[in-house]
Prior knowledge:
The complex is a heterodimer. By secondary structure, chain A is an alpha+beta fold. Chain A has helices at residues 40-49, 75-86, 113-120, 135-138, 186-190, 217-221, 243-246, 261-264, 291-298, 325-332, 336-344, 348-354; strands spanning 3-6, 11-14, 24-31, 62-66, 93-94, 107-108, 173-177, 196-198, 205-207, 227-230, 235-238, 271-277, 303-304, 315-318, 366-370, 374-380, 383-388, 391-395, 401-406, 411-413. Chain A has a four-stranded mixed sheet. Chain A has a three-stranded antiparallel sheet with strand order 15-18-19, with helices on one face. In chain A, strands 1-2 form a two-stranded antiparallel sheet. The longest helix of chain A is centred in the first third of the chain and has 12 residues, at 75-86. By secondary structure, chain B is an all-alpha fold. Chain B folds into two domains: 1-83, no CATH class; 86-114, no CATH class. Chain B is built from four helices and one strand. Chain B has helices at 23-39, 44-52, 57-66, 68-82, and one strand at residues 87-89. The longest helix of chain B has 17 residues, at 23-39. The interface between A and B is large, with 58 and 53 residues.
Amino acid sequence: MPSVKNWQLGREMAYPYDARYPDRQFAFVFNINRCIACQSCTMACKSTWTFSKGQEHMWWANVETKPYGGYPRFWDMKILEKLEEANPEGQTWSGGLSEERGKPYGTFDGQTIFEAAQRTLTPDSARVLGYLPTDEEWNSPNIYEDNPVGQKGVRNKLSETGEQLPVHNTWFFYLARICNHCSYPACLAACPRKALYKRPEDGIVLLDQEECRGYRKCVEACPYKKTMYRGNTRTSEKCIACYPRVEGKDPESGGDPMETRCMAACIGQMRMQGLVKLAEDGTWAKDRQNPLYYLVHVAKVALPLYPQFGTQPNGYYIPPRWVPRPYLRQMFGPGVDRAIERYTDPDRELLAVLQLFRRSNKIIFRYEMKEGPKVYEGTLHGKPVTLYNDTVIAYGKTGKELFRTTVEEPVHVRPAIHANSI
Amino acid sequence: MPYDDPEPDDPHILVGVSLPGDETVTREMAAAFADEFAQMGFDRDRLLRLFANPFYTGAHAARQLLGDAEITRIVVESLRAYGGRAYVVLDADTEGDEPEAPAARRGKRALRVL
């Protein structure tokens, strides 16, 4: 099996195909601290792409409550369990964190889903360690999460007082997920028909419906379970990253690349998507003023989801501040402590870049900061903090200014009498 | 909405697994919510209402565990740092329409009514 460079793991790893990288890569950052699981993203995707017969169980974008929930149920617990069985006690990291772009989280010493498959599966039958979820696991997203248990025998009625509803007596957080459009997609690696491909212009992973014969090898292989089988067409389908929007072909865009539907619908302002430049070796090319590059490689507050799977996912998450660290380290790798420390006590630039989230639906390719006056000096959660009302300016693909905003951007509200009028 | 509790013998349900949510974790969660919503322009009343809302389960559970006084302290601390946004009321053509508590802000900005 060829060897490819996985910068998230800080080493070379086995992958069924030789490395090939797009010019730019579709990538996104989700700020978990802000997600309220309103499911606006979920419904934006559903109402755009998966509303047809045979797609009822498909949620290309979903939000699940961790640690209870998952769609399909137990997806991450099951694949983590399989990796642990393949390499008991060996799924560890070493080397410590660094500021280096090619090795920011140290080195992963364990086995990826590709490497574990070489050792545990018959090579001809499978290239990727995975499993096929049952129908039952697909059919009830969000079941037993933080929604209340209804009264026995009474359907479709909520408790009138609310306070009586049962609650989980522990921590939890909401994890929003879409396809990670991985640099080394497991779905692509597993397909015997080569129906899956990665677009050279933006790294979006697509599934050719003409080529697919519904073997479901991709469904089995994707560790994030973001390829789904459609019974009535007998083919598999997956998130297409709203590619007409990303290409700038949406009539609303005026030719400029636009963020996906799920990003645009986010009322919690926790999602930002972009197209990052790649270097020849597949690492992110230095692009200091790109907001995603800044969050992932400069501030290092945004981390990949389960990097140890080895697919080099292009979805990054700002981890939730309050969740016990061992759980977060398992989910986002060793960079968690550094990320939370920096996010909880943001510096001037980070605070300004965080204002870029959801101020526009067009993709931001570059930002600039203009320093503003000091507006607060004091303490916050026991630490000294100084805030400045800086201005941050976002630019699009052509270099045209998209918008500018300030750290203390005024909030525009309608009076209560017109709150819901259009 | 599920109508039954999970089956206790389902091997994948987190029954008997210890995932403690102690006071420290809860306080950090409450502080995170207060910081984030203050940055999004919530004022003191809206923030306190958020913690009082039983359907916003995380915030509500924090209020139940820590109590009103502690939640108010956390909210006030967050607003001191992040509560400096001005409110601008659009379409204020009706008499008696008051903007949401600009006085609760740091008072650095004048209110503009468009």
